[in-house]
Each structure stands twice: as structure tokens, then as C-alpha cells.
Description:
The chain is an alpha/beta fold.
Amino acid sequence: MIRKRACSSSDNLRTSHRTASACWAALLFVAVGCADAPVEAVGAPPPPRSGALWIAGSGGALALARELASAFEAAEPGTRVVVHPSIGSSGAVRALGDHAIDVGLLTRAPRSSERAALGRVEAIAETDIALAAHPSVPVDHVGRSDLVSLFSGGARWSDGVRAIPVLREAGDSSQEALRHAVPGLGATLDRMWRQERYRIAWHDAELVETVTRVPGSFGVSDVGQNACEPRGARLVHIQGVVLRKHIHLALAPRPRPEARAFVEFAMSPRGRAVTRACGYRSPERR
């Protein structure tokens, strides 16, 4: 299916690391701050903000969040929900801590350094990690043993087209889960980042948009978001490893009533039906 070969400099899709997408509002730019710094809870929230319910966070959760927002607006006439572009899971935590958003979207569990900024956190959906690839890629499955070769940039698909990795930034939840599950993949990814030989996608939508344009290209994605919001990428499942990605809704310690209502809706039978219709599974409650 996949055969290795030496990768010449002329073959490389050369791009330098790009600055992450510009923040969509100065308010959230301030809120995101340094992703690795501890987040402290603010003692008293500001006066309630009138108007729309603001939701933001990981790009991998946006498609489902938009579907839930539409269903919530239909169930609660007069309520307006705005789902903003990606600021990442870490950005969502910091924005909640600064009261810049009402509901955060996380595709990983909160870190211990983030707990103080958060109140309620609920896992509302799960899906399997997979690869998103150019539509012409001639496979539906790859083995775990193939991944190191694929991500090294020295492989070709079975039709002879070079396999071109589109990497996510270091720390991306899906890519990190995969690197820990596949021996040798972590060292390969670290080398590729250092060499700056391949494009970095700073959010999930950028990755899928890239792989649909560049023949032979692929990157780490998941089943749910590609089913919920199809963009033409080919989904390539990974054999020999089962990795699940969870979407969490997070609230500040003292959320607006509308934010609590949105989380309750997402967990209700009607919300779970939206989740399943969007291609996700509802996680089992413990």
C-alpha cells in the first residue's frame, strides 16, 4: 500500500511556520494569553452581559457547536448564540477566566493549572481519531506501522503520489494522542517541526481545507467533525489503534443562566439527538 523512498528537497512542500490566525476580536486576544500559564479564577464576575451567548474554543468542536446552537435557538425563541472561530482549548479556558465568553469548547480534559478558572465541565460527545486526506488518496485505512513512514515525508501512496503530511501545532490534542500511541511517531513529528519542511495548520478547518487542495496530503483529524461538516476530505481510518476524542463544554465558576441552559440542552435527549445526527457518539455517563 505504502512504500518508502528518500525524500529530496525538491519534493518538499516548503513553508515556514506561519503566525497563527489573527484573533477575531481584541477581547479574546487578551483573554487567550499564554496557553501554558496557570489560569486563576476571577473573584467576582462583571455585571451580566446582555445580548448573545458567546461560545468559542477548539476548532475541532465548532461544527458540532454550530449545530447545537441552531437547535438551542429553535428551542429557546429569542435567544441568540454566536459560535466564534477557533481559539483552541487553552484559549477557551483563558477566555472563560477573563469572562470574555460564556461557554468554552475543549477537545481535551482540563489541565490541573486550568481548574481554578473553570466551573462545570461536561463531556457531551466522542468520536474516533482518523486521518483527513486529499480525495484522490487511494486508501480508506492505514496500519499503525505505516504512520511513522507517512509522517516522515518519505512515503508514497499506492498510486505513486507522494504522501505529504500537514502537521498540527505542537500540543494539538488529536495529534498528541496519536504520537503517544504509535512508537517512534513522536520523534518523527519533533524532527519535522524542527526542520520546518511542511505546512503547519493552526486549526482543524485549515487542515481540512489544505488537504482537499494538495494531492497526496493528509493530517490528523477525526470522524465526527468530517461527518458533521463535510468539506470533501477523504477519511482514512487507522487500524491497530483506537483513539477517541471527547468534546467538552466548560463554564466559568459563575456562569450566566443562558450558559447553564445551553449545557443542559446539549446533555438533554434533544441535544444528544443533535450530537448523533452530526456523526458523534454521546459518551456514556459514569
